[in-house]
Amino acid sequence: MAAKFIHCLVLNAAWLGVSSAALARTSVDQQVSLRTFSGYLQNPNGSESLYPAKSDLNQQVILRDSVKIKPNRSVRFEINAFGLLIGSSSKSSLVQTLLNASDETNRTADLERHWHNSTNSDGYLTLDRLNVSLRLGHADLTIGRFPVNLSTMFVFVPNDFFAPFRAFDYYREFKPGVDGARFDVALGRRGQLSVLGLAGFQSYGVTSRTGSETKPSRNYSPINASALVRGTYALRRFELGFLGGKVGPSLLGGFSLQGELGNFGIRAEGNQRANQISKQKTLAVAGGLDYRLTSKFAVQMEQYFNGGGLRKASELVDEESPGFTSPTLQLGRLYTALTGIYDITGVLNLKTLLIINDSDQSMLGNLYLTYSVAANANLVVALMVPRGKPPEETTPVTEYGLYPTVLSIQTAVYF
Question: For 174-193, how does the pLDDT look when each residue is reduced to its tens digit (9 = 90+)?
């Protein structure tokens, strides 16, 4: 009995020694952030069914915890969770869909809890990323919930198929994750091949996160699943990319390009889709130039043709319209965007963004004044001003005529 006891002690001591050594080699990177949004919204003149009030108030608080754990050089775990509290003076307003909606076709609702729902507020707890990455020689395999961005553009992103940011989103450090697997392998020093497979879930449209009837789904839907192959190759000062596969119900092929020509930055991307349900083919192409005039001032211009977009804004009321795919993307056919970035001082930055719907001549102007309060905190005063004919009763006339004028104060603190 004593010999067995001593033997167990030796084994336990050895196990503790191995565990301690492994723990000592484990790298843990954690970041906690707290963001707030407070906005006053002046709604366009229109139907009371779209805008119950002439003005609205909107508040958001997002507490996010991001943890990356590396037990060794070959394995990495990522966990990213956030708590979101939204307050609105009018949850039923169309404004809430325009400003808060997201496309969650490629992520299950099982990792989200809608823990609070009252007349003027909603609370959510969400696992935004949950994945493991394995380093396999010159390749990486990621499984779980992770972000995917295949775009090279800034404003118009036809190749960003999965939970893209809106053009006017300011904070972009945490792209929403989607559920699936990704395999990346290096092809020499200049090339890379990526294989991507994502789950699809039954889609009832978009999720506004303000207590509306539209909710994320737990029901798996093979037609909404996606499988893509993408290859990139660096050629001198340019990177060329090609992709093909299935995104939701559509088969597609596409390209991307980014690089420098003299003092100009050049970007382009696009794809052609063939929807297997509607049998429609659509082409989407975007291109842009960026140029730094001085060390403190840079400008960008982008052009976008969206072949699957709406011919007129009134088609928004038609649920079968192929253009109404996501509120995070532009809904029309032809757009221009102009961006200016000016570093006023080392702690004060001004960014302007003008988006023009060339089809209906509506516009959306954005101004962001950012003050770096400290190395880990900033304050943003933002103004969004639309221009366009407001809706007539419940029928939209122009795309950006649907949007409110928004004056907001945003803060972000990182720990």
Answer: 899 999 999 999 998 899 99
DSSP letter at 163 equals: S
Residue 16 lies in a domain: no
In a domain, 338, yes or no: yes
SS3 211: coil
DSSP code per residue over 48-89: TTT-SSSEEEEEEEEEEEEEEEEEETTEEEEEEEEEEEEEES
149 is in which domain, residue-wise? Answer: 26-414
Domain of residue 155, CATH code: 2.40.160.10
- 104 neighbors 124 (Cβ within 8 angstroms): no
- Give a yes or no: residue 6 inside a domain: no
Span 75-111, pLDDT tens digits: 999 999 999 999 888 877 777 777 777 778 889 888 9
Q: Is residue 386 part of a domain?
A: yes
Give me the number of domains the chain comprises. 1
* DSSP calls for 101-149: -B--TTS-GGGEEEEEE-SSEEEEEEEEEEEEEEEETTEEEEEEEE---
